[in-house]
Amino acid sequence: xxxxxxxxxxxxxxxxxxxxxxxxxxxxxxxxxxxxxxxxxxxxxxxxxxxxxxxxxxxxxxxxxxxxxxxxxxxxxxxxxxxxxxxxxxxxxxxxxxxxxxxxxxxxxxxxxxxxxxxxxxxxxxxxxxxxxxxxxxxxxxxxxxxxxxxxxxxxxxxxxxxxxxxxxxxxxxxxxxxxxxxxxxxxxxxxxxx
Length: 195
Fold this sequence. Notes:
Layout: H1 3-14, H2 17-26, H3 33-38, H4 42-51, H5 61-69, H6 73-90, H7 97-113, H8 118-124, H9 129-138, H10 143-158, H11 164-173, H12 177-192
């Protein structure tokens, strides 16, 4: 069983009706009114937020904010403990900090310079269409965000195996040589600049 889902389920079980109402109120900008009206439990609310990727295993900032706003410090503390333990366990699978910095720069350049053909790039990186569709549904009018979230998901999926070299190779494989050149240029500036 997924420990993160178990944690959310336990949160849902401990929410009073008034707290659930407050959380629904805080979600108005993220979830449509009709969808929110049908939510009857924390599990239903968390399911929508997970589907829209407003909360993920790696990004619990919005959930933290909601728990803080409804004054549930006990749940906030459990969440922080979970994240802390998760980071310790996951650190072995994460790229080293220098590689992460390079990836962040590369991803920014790619998002600034790749638009219409971003799906072709993601397929070249062997990223799944179903995940891309889910990301598009969560960000229907923001192509840059669709690409950025897809790259972040690719990065999480690949873990330590995610390399900037793969991004550059995929760009070149899609005949996006100019973007690949810009990425390489930015990375060389980063490597030669102050640390």
